[in-house]
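Q: I have two molecules that I believe assemble together. Could you output structure tokens for the complex as a whole instead of separate predictions?
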Amino acid sequence: MLPEQAQQALETRQTTSPSYWAISIRRLLRKKIGVGCLTVIVIMYGSGIFAPLVTPYGYNDQDLSMAKQGPSVGHPFGTDRLGRDSLTRIIYGLRTTVIITVITLVTGSLALGITLGLLAGYFGKFVDTLIMRVGEVSSAFPEIFLVLIIISTMKAPMTRWARSVEDIVGFEIVSLGVVDYLVLALALAIFSWFGMARLVRGQVLQARENQYVEAARAIGASTPRILWRHLLPNVMGPVIVTVSAGLAGVAGSEVLLSFLGIGIQPPTPSLGLMIFENGSISVLRSDPHLLLFPVLTLSLLLFTFNLLGDAVNDAFNPRAR
Amino acid sequence: MGRYILSRMAWLPVILLIVSFITFALGRFGPGDPVEVLMGQYADPEVVERIREQRGFNDNIFVQYGRYVKNITRGDFGESFKYRGRTVSELLRKKMWVSAQLNIAALFLSVSVGVPLGLFSALKQGTAWDTGTVAFTLLGQSIPVFLTAPLVLIIFALKLDILPTHGWGGLFDTRVILPALVMGVPGIAIITRLTRASTMEVISQDYIRTARAKGLSEMTVQRRHVLRNAMIPVVTMLGFSLAGIAFTSFIVERFFGIPGIGNLFIESIFARDFPIINAVIIIGTTMFVLANLIVDLIYPWLDPRIRLGGSYAA
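A: Yes, here they are, computed for all two components at once.
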């Protein structure tokens, strides 16, 4: 029997050391910039998601007697040419941004990118060559051109398809604007997977040589289990960094496409559309608030995304510690 | 070296074939029959059929595509659907030149301001100048063109009323200043930031101390030893930034009413004018691939230790 003190010392030793995740998240929360960015993003995303609850007006409520008014107590950001409340429309525009960024990142970067990266890194040889070559070709040209084409040609077939689904399900899909969101997000996703796949592949190439992979294989773990349970958790750090760094890009693309008239269609509000509608010198001369509020909201969002990307990189990147 | 260029150039046709086939197929299978677009809604079906036959739209898609590629190799991109009777090459040549000039002006601005600013900031590290520059780069990189364009318009056109805001008059016209400035700001920010980071890394190297110890003048040390080595990441960035510039020129051309390729491209997408769309994509892709190749060729000139085409093992 050991003395009591020694027993205690042993017990304290046995407590597990804080995990990589715990350390990283603590590092992120210790930074004022990181917390600030997270707060701004939570507020913006939150108000976007709960738009119908936080906005006093509907995004399509017109009141022509109130058209083109400057900021006031009733309409903090003023009203547009149809008398619609600008703040309400901006918040609904943020909802568009939220939906597009989330769908694009989940389908493109996370689902496609991680899966293909894991496969390429783990199997190597033919699989690797195929995936990497396809990716290299797809990143060898300015993808904005193809995104534009894909959206403009795929929208009509997708709408037709959605109508046929409507007939089966029995409720309205097309009028919700879902098709716009889907086409836009998927077109962006097609070109956003390669960066992630290349990163995951590189990480897996290192990680698969570890003994724990060999051990897992020795006790008979299946390949999917090794990939998802053993390799993936070990490459998640850089993945998080890449995702947070890519947020601004995806949000920016959506705004650009809607600005060009190819993304989200009116009357669904989108920041890009609002900027396009009011993006002329005559509006700036007479009602600058119509252009400046959406633009400032967008700038704040992109700026926060960039700052957050840096902060997350500092917190999660082992080499930056 | 020659072999490296050849193997890289061999990729170009492959990429071009894939990209052009995708757009070509989307054009044929997508909504909106090109001939109906061409003839309008109330066209005589017989005429439509005759034109389909005449232009070969009734052939197998691979036959059509083969013919299209064959014509391109002779520099013939076909005839626009929307602007009837005008060839694509004729339409594109003028607009591309406008966009190219604008991009060159923006690129020139970002390099000529960004590199000295980054170098200066790195050499004055820790001073108020440096802090100010870093703050500027952070802002300049995050603020979208959507904000800088209206801001610049308000300041220079509405408040000061010193510069024209609309239209195009060539590279030596005052109307180029504002759009080039707007397009240049993100570039300046990125290049300043990169130059500062890589300069700081380079000046702590031993060979810089050696160069100073040899008694070289500060000017020579900075020009031949610091700047040259610090430029490598910047040059890489320039290759990629071409795509970014294409991105922003869509926006800037709209805001400032410049008759460039961006506006034509969007117009063509709405008009389903696929000869123009395909041509823009093919030319744009070629330029992007070539730019990245040129970037690769600049590396060995900047740093003779870099050997192209060799193994990556250092």
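A: One point stands out. The mean pLDDT of chain B is 78.
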